[in-house]
Amino acid sequence: MYERRPDAAQLDAFGLTAADLGQQQDMDVWPDNWQAVQLLNRMSTQWRVGFGGAMGLDYNVLYRMMDRLGLVPEEFDQLEADIQVMEMTVLEIRQESAS
Questions:
Q1: CB 48, CB 58: distance < 8 Å
Q2: Which Pfam family, any one, appears in the UniProt record (predicted)?
Q3: How confident is the model at residue 61 (pLDDT cuts 50, 70, 90)?
Q4: Residues 6+ positions from 58 with CB-CB distance below 8 Å
Q5: Are 46 and 62 a contacting pair, CB within 8 Å?
Q6: What are phi and psi of 46, to 5 degrees?
Q7: Which of 11-15, 19-23, 60-64, 75-79 has the lowest mean pLDDT?
Q8: How much is the pLDDT for 3?
Q9: pTM for the complete prediction?
Q10: What is the Cα–Cα distance from 98 to 73, expressed in whole angstroms?
Q11: 3-class DSSP assignment, residue 97
């Protein structure tokens, strides 16, 4: 999900081309956001899902993971806010692609 795309030699080893992977773009992550990106990646299996698809992250699991990071209250609040921004963005992208 958050990894670099394989180069041509790596694809060729499996008989694939870049077209086989579809459209995906590499992106840079600002250092200030790296912890939130890593945490969201760890939460990738913790989406609450209903009949209409994903509804949001399971915050019980999120808070457990955040507690283990040993953050001071201000860092905890900022990381929670960062995750919420990314969560809403993921949900918006999923909704757009379903339309």
A1: yes
A2: DUF1799
A3: very high
A4: 43, 46, 47, 48
A5: yes
A6: -115, 40
A7: 19-23
A8: 61
A9: 0.72
A10: 37
A11: helix
Distance CA(5)–CA(24), nearest Å, equals 8
Q: Which residues pair with 53 in a beta bridge?
A: 50
The answer to whether 5 touches 21, Cβ cutoff 8 Å, is: yes
Task: Give backbone dihedrals phi and psi of 24, rounded to 5 degrees, phi first.
Answer: -150, 140
With CA atoms as reference, report the closest residue to 57 among 89, 87, 94: 87
Segments making up each domain of the chain, as ranges: 30-98
Check residue 12 and give its pLDDT.
79
Closest CA to 22 of 11, 38, 33, 31: 11
* Cβ–Cβ < 8 Å for 82, 36: yes
Q: Which residue has the tokens 């870049």?
A: 18
